[in-house]
Amino acid sequence: MTLDEFKQRYALQLLPEDNAPKITRSLREAAVLVGLIEKEHELHLILTRRPTHLRAHPGQISFPGGKVEAQDVDYTATALREAFEEIALPQDNVQVLGQYPMFNTLTGFTIAPIVGIIKQEFEIILDPGEVDELFTVPLSFLLNPDNRVMKRFTRRGISYPVYFIPYNQHMIWGATAAMIDKMCRQLSNDEMGC
Questions:
Q1: How many domains does the structure of the chain reveal?
Q2: Of 8, 94, 101, 114, which has the fewest Cβ atoms less than 10 A away?
Q3: pLDDT one-digit tens code per residue, 131-182
Q4: How far apart are CA 148 and CA 107, in angstroms?
Q5: Are the CB atoms for 112 and 102 separated by under 8 Å?
Q6: In this structure, what CATH number is given to the domain that contains residue 113?
Q7: In a domain, 159, yes or no
Q8: What are the two backbone dihedrals, phi and then psi, of residue 160, each rounded to the nearest 5 degrees?
Q9: How far apart are the C-alpha atoms of 17 and 140, rounded to whole Å?
Q10: Longest Cα separation, the chain
């Protein structure tokens, strides 16, 4: 999928700064950058792998992002700040397209997925305290529903869908895979999933 095709299917307008969702401090809030970059006329999704020494979600695949901090005026500010801190992505190198609805996790977070286009290649500098690896996945791979798996698991008597996306040596799962699945279903006009 090309950048123009993505923008046409995504069909979100830029969020005006004064209309961006404001932070409410009642929950453990976080924001992630669902960042896409064009390589050889095809969009790729940027993902990171967390270090295994971390207490929370060690070794898991995630979007650049993290917890909301006091200086963040909105979720976009959080996602862009975290992307700069984790992978040295300059904030002015991201064209923000919009935000998906908040995503609640079983671990007690509510996450704002901020969708943005990385305008050009940049010098990647990983923060070793937060990121072990950065890699990209072609959006065409993710759009193929055969590459996305959903299984149901029960926790405390409640059944939950858990998403998995195997890609090369990586296993993308949990909240990251669920957000990818939602985006892919929207882009494919297939809202029949779970």
A1: 1
A2: 101
A3: 999 999 999 999 999 999 999 888 778 888 889 999 999 999 989 999 999 8
A4: 22
A5: yes
A6: 3.90.79.10
A7: no
A8: -125, 145
A9: 31
A10: 47
